[in-house]
Sequence to fold (163 residues):
Amino acid sequence: MALVYSTEGSFCEGEVVKDWKFKMEYGKIILSKLELSLVKKSNISLTERGSSVDNYKDGFVIPLTQIKKAYSTKIQKIYVVVIETRDNLLFSITLANERSIGRLESINLSEMINSSILLAIKDNKNTQNAGDYEVKPLSNKCVKCGEEISHNWKFCKNCGREL
Fold:
């Protein structure tokens, strides 16, 4: 599984609320060729001085083929990447911090997610038979004379029978 993008940010299931800094989980956003992983991060204090170690826990794993759309939008004063899945779940991701509202980062992340989705769908199509995606029209022949006719004709040009 090839890594496409990795960064730290805040995310939640559902829409962003007013006090987003307290309601969203902080962790890693990892985009690979197959899935988007939102991994929760918690700091564990090892000493009384407050030194910490990153401890990553399971979060959300969203297969790229299940994402219906991903787009960047502004909610209140921050920019958020909204991800809608095919089973009607909603996820929100922001890369905003104390100094930035995350505009450029959210646009960049939404573009990377969308391009990864397109590549995943293309790879999926290449692994399956090409004949599965071709639509072959049924042959339309006149019942009386057997002449091949177009689907939009009302009469057979050979024998004149009404179709």
